[in-house]
Amino acid sequence: METRRCLLVDAFTTEPLSGNAAGIVPDAAGLDDAQMQAIARELQASETAFLTPGEEADRRIRYFTPTQEVDLCGHATVASHAWLAESGEIDDGTHSLATNVGVIEVTVDEGAVWMTQDDAAVEVVDLDRGRVADVLGADPATLRDVGADLPLATASTGLGFLVVPVNFLAALSDLDPDFGAVAALTDELDVTGVYAFTFDALDADATLHGRMFAPGAGVDEDPVTGTASGAVGAYLREVGAFDGDLPSELVLEQGHFVDRPGRVRVRARSDPVTVGGRAVTALDGSVAVPASDDDEIIEV
Question: How much is the pTM?
């Protein structure tokens, strides 16, 4: 049976087994959709990235959760390029990457990886906070009086998210989402997930602490989410969350409540928003690839 090299690379961290694990198949040429989906299902990372030579860019990338393909994934992009740099496949500098949402730029700078996002789109939504609180398993009071009542809004820099401000870290910690209701709400709003955040962060240098739920995409709670971080950066800019200018760089904490802590750096003063971080390889091996018409479980 054919095998392909596969890796698990932890993004938005420098410590193995923390941050957000991305599956990577660095040579996916010739794999069909069913084979890529089977590999992603076997690896069980929130997303697995499949790299092939590019025509309109340096490389082409596709992303699969264990259940479906998604158009863009920040942590898998960061993980892929951190590994490519570590293995000597690419040098520091800017590289083009073809995704399902278009060609983006990825810059490698002394171990840090920065990816451009799509143009930001932020729209305040008329949702009852009590309903959102029920969906998230929260006390409705914790969604009020946050930063002078920052609004609920959908935000996207490539993938859409419902952004929900929460007053304190304890309330964010206590969220107990109804994942069926979360999936229904995100489907109704045509977004990928719900990103709840508080300015009550753990680290003194962090801007905020977030949690992201995307059960409709097969990920109940994502450890650290690059695309959502970019969207939240755009949201904070558009709603004027800070007195004066948005800080030149935001630091978003995520993952602590699923024991996978990580940090995302976001530059969102203007478009395109950029998202950055580091990554570390946790596993390097091979995966057996079934024939395209073979539904048997693959083996690692």
Answer: 0.88
Structural element, H or E, at residue 148: none
**Which string of DSSP letters, residue by residue, matches 173-204?**
HT----HHHHHHHHHHHT-SEEEEEES--SST
The two tokens of residue 63 are 């992303």
Backbone angles phi, psi at 73, to 5 degrees: -150, 115
- Select from 270, 269, 263 the least CA-distant residue to 74: 263
Point out which residues pair with 11 in neighbouring strands: 20, 279
The DSSP code sequence of 213-238 is EEGGGTEEEESS-HHHHHHHHHHHHH
Which one from 42, 47, 221, 238 is the annotated catalytic residue?
47
Q: Left if phi > 0, otherwise alpha if psi is -120 to 50, otherwise beta: which for 40?
A: alpha
Q: Answer yes or no: 2 catalytic.
A: no
pLDDT tens track for 73-114: 999 999 999 999 999 999 999 999 999 989 999 999 998 999
